[in-house]
Amino acid sequence: MAQETIEKRFNVPTPAVLKVNNISGSVDIGTGDEGVIHIRAVKNTHPEGGETTQVEISQEENGAVSVVTKYKDQYLGWVIGSEKVCDVDYVIKAPRKCSFVIHGVSDDVHMVGFEGELKLKNVSGDISLQDIMGSLSLDTVSGDISAVMINGEGQIKSVSGDIDLQDAQLSSVHVTTVSGDVSLHTKILKGPYQFNTVSGDVQLLVPGDTHCNTELHSLSGKFFTNLPVSESRRGIGSNSAKLQGGGVEVSLKSISGDLSVETISDIPQKLVVTPGEIISKVERGEISVDEAVLQLKK
Known about the structure:
The protein is mainly beta. It has a domain of about 120 residues. It is built from two helices and 22 strands. Strand 6 and strand 7 form a beta hairpin.
């Protein structure tokens, strides 16, 4: 199998905009020089598809850069005829402040080090992100999503793929999966944190000082936490709890998925006394008013 290499370089405004559409191959995007987008495309050619597969790289009037893998006999996303499509591997360098629109089929996507809006749709390929800040919209089918150090707001959809987000600071997130599990390690900020699954489990790892309200609606799912529970309520197909007095909303709607809200830090497992219980102790003469004030301040 032979290879054909195409390289192009564009001067771009700040913030930059990059659009990538690839079918079969990979997309690897890292930070480069300010004001410049550099693209290197390697087409792995073979006799059955070398002439059919085309790489188009151009710049729009508004400065956005467009990268497209196309096929001569493609119609509505399907390749017609007996030709085999060629894998195209893209290595791209872009300014840190850059927004992305990426579509892929049978395409692995890896990105490191950007600030800006990210819209990414992928079918039959994995997504890997690191050090990303901004609004995230991720949509994948038959592919896993993994990320480290992501900040912002997230809208994430997955069909038959696991989602693993570590060392995140997501101010709010809405995750929808069919059969994949979700693991999210984040500081709890303004919220809400909403999860919808069919059979996937959700594990939320949070700091030890987290205060939140949890809601689980599931036919057979279970709820677990190692944080102090100050109030809880169970019903048919539902389980709600206030952790450390309550706060930001965390919810999971599922058919058979479990929800766990855990801290990886060591916290004292003590009984949480509510303000109402403290007032009752004063009324019964068990503690003084001054002692009650001190306990309420804890």
